[in-house]
Design a protein that fits this description.
Helices cover 74% and strands 0% of the residues. α2 runs antiparallel to α5 and α10 runs antiparallel to α11. It has 11 helices and no strands. It has one domain. It is mostly helical.
Length: 296
Amino acid sequence: MTSATAQAVQPTELVPDAPHRSRPLALATATLGLGLAVNSLLGPLATGVIVYHYGPSMTFQGIGLDAVALVLAAPLALVAAVLTSRGHRAGPVLALAPAGFAAYMMPQYVVGPDYLGLPGNNQRAIPFDLALFVLSVAVLLMAWRSQSARPAGTPRSDRVLRWVLVGVAVFIGLGRWLPALGDAMSDQATAGSYLDNPTAFWLVAFLDLGIIVPAALAAAVGLWRGATWARTAGWAVVGWVSLVPASVAAMAITMQLRHDPLTTIGNTLFLTAVGVVLTLAAAALYVPLLRRPRAR
């Protein structure tokens, strides 16, 4: 055997995965991460340059949301950008997470505030919010296309992913919104979260029940039937799970620390536990993707 032949059959490490190499996706994801960080620093979390037309409770929630965007979503976008630029199979999958997070949150920044009833200046930041929303959708589409070309996962991970998706749909649809909608749709609502900002309440309910729950159930059914598109859809929902429940927990913790009357210790502990469990479940699904297979 010649030396050239011997070198050819030896295993090599870190061989770029060409189908996932995408400079436009890497650049867009990195830009999105930087945009999320800037948006967080300009809000009530840090500089207060952007003052939202919110009451105290919603402002506290905004602080928690910005903290998660700065500490988790933005760094995850940069990691996804680096991995994508190196052709790693996990890059496009991870890019789905900050993109889904931003696409879910940006409408709430714009539609949620009470522009006529409360002071603020966030209407001046709406072009920036709109740009981040458009960019997040673009990253979602590019990551979806790149991931669909060669779906990452195994039959075992598909089974785990399927049950995670079912659990997310059941928790959001029945545990999170069924009691809240029962109160909000009554003749006289009593929940403080609804009375404080009904617009934000209905917007989040609409996004959760109109997009997240159907997407999770559709992906779970698709995985059960062996549809290849279901893996990509499932990873998109997992990306949402990896960040949004953590942000909800951060909102509750911030409200508790600021002694907000609209929250309780029990509610804070419950939302924190849910956020931790779902974030760890998403992380457990991501870990195998980060191990690059050896190429021969």
